[in-house]
Amino acid sequence: MPVTAEQLLERLQQALPAEVVDAANGQVCVDMLCIDVAPDNLLDTLQVLHDDPNLSFKQMSDLCGVDYATFGDAEWSTETGGSASFSRAVDANSIGTLSFSNNTGLPDSDQPRFAAVYHLLSLDHNMRLRIRCHAVDNDFPIVPSVTGQYACADWYEREAFDLYGILFDGHNDLRRILTDYGFVGHPFRKDFPLIGNVEMRFDPIKKRVVYEPVSIEPRVLVPRVIREDSRYVSDSVTDNADDAAEAS
Amino acid sequence: MPEIRNYTLNFGPQHPAAHGVLRLVLEMDGEVVERADPHIGLLHRGTEKLAESKPYNQTIGYMDRLDYVSMMCNEHGYVMAIEKLLGCEVPLRAQYIRTMFDEITRILNHLMWLGAHGLDVGAMSMFLYCFREREDLMDCYEAVSGARMHATYYRPGGVARDLPDIMPQYTESRWRSKSNANKMNENRQGSMLDFLDDFTVRFPKLVDEYETLLTDNRIWKQRTVGIGVVTPERALQLGFTGPMLRGSGIEWDLRKKQPYEVYDKINFDIPVGTNGDSYDRYLVRVEEMRQSNSIIKQCSEWLRKNPGPILTEDHKISAPKRAEMKGDMEALIHHFKLFTEGFCLPVGDAYAAVEHPKGEFGCYIVSDGANKPYRLKVRAPGFPHLAALDEMARGHMLSDVVAIIGTQDIVFGEIDR
User: pLDDT at position A236, please?
Assistant: First the structure.
């Protein structure tokens, strides 16, 4: 891409007010700039990004919800395998083993849980930008709707609402889109079991479709493991490790 | 005097022109559409949620099943997002193989589209012609991966195996005499590349055949010219990509603008429409088939001359060879770790997009350092296209709605995910 992420950050700092893009806000991950924007500033920011001739992000490629509730949680944290095999060492209360009967919910956290992530594309300058907008309230996540700026946000916001329960303020038709008619819950939330809550079948006696609690057991075939692979540990972490080694 | 009222018409989900499982609720004024409300999600399988519960490599197969008429391009987008986060190198030969199979996939997709669109609009014979050539390309899929459709061929760091030296053969059966089978096997005696070269020589003439049937056909033009017109400004607003955007006159193709793999080393042109109607999008796609054919030819030429590795040597990501495993302890450990646990990605976000036959297919991966994605979002090109159906169909006749669904190249596997 001709415009690098650093150049884009400079342009953003010129075009946007300082409280939206400050020095700490623009992280570059791999090849793309990501800025965090508060819900209150979102609409103004997108309007500038859309209209400013140096930016001209005329298209929104993607909008999606993300649930950060269990970010960084591993399911398997024993150091040694022991006599139990790999999959039996899975933590019994992990996300992968969730089911309707043992769903105790997630622990309360002060961290913002839900975010809407926008991927913008500028055809004039051939560059992309990621914007992340964390909803303030975890129990009632609400983010302004950007349908006024980008028409394609309509369905994307319906999808994020359907799957995550993020509410988009100002959206005029916020219906479910992907799940079944009459579906209960938001399936992509981390506290929604992978196997679901209900199953459906045709009852030949009643001569209609009936819903029942799921009969399958959740299981984890490959546990979620976080490895501190030395190739990817960031510089600051290695520095600290070096300091610790020197101190001892 | 009878009272005249608008009425609501339910179209689909079980309707041959609904391209799978589209349910449309149409508000009609006589035969004119006042409002179209597509109900989607009847094919929702929760692919993204499933991906969160599996190691990265096990999701490649799910990608095939998203847009099930352009399988390898879906894999490509997913695999590229992983490679971006890992920062791993792909051998040049693998890049050429991927480019070639992306273009084979593009022809596969456009043939399916042309056949189905023709059928919707009333040109039955198109369907039969298109499926004849799809068969040859599916055989290439089979030769290289063992599966005719859901190939699971791409891997982070390359492709699963090198191009084969033999092609699958037709055999004699109750329905096919020996002499007939031999005749059908004539161009399958050599390697896959020989077969493909034979195809690239035949194919331009076959595209001419399709064009003879449709391009100047009076009925075809009546059904497509001026139907579903989208201005360039609206196309951008509505998130259109691929032939839908190029049909409206915007020259934007990721293969040229943000080249990935070896597209910057290959000569090809991007066809662009002028009017933004269904007929222009038809012309764009037909020309794309010709361009893809030429790309395949160029890739095949390079692949013949340059043997080499097709998968990265980094055994943290790709499995070591079986023979190597028998003698080397470290290779055995790598193999065991890869298949019991998979590989971990560094913490971070990555978005990778490829020019899929339908538009921009993007994969957004959020990784928290685990061996499974924390969040995977698939940006399906068909999703914003179908969202614009209401706007495109308003004021058209009921039969034009079918033509518009056809021109959008809708596949529900990717829209419902």
Answer: 42
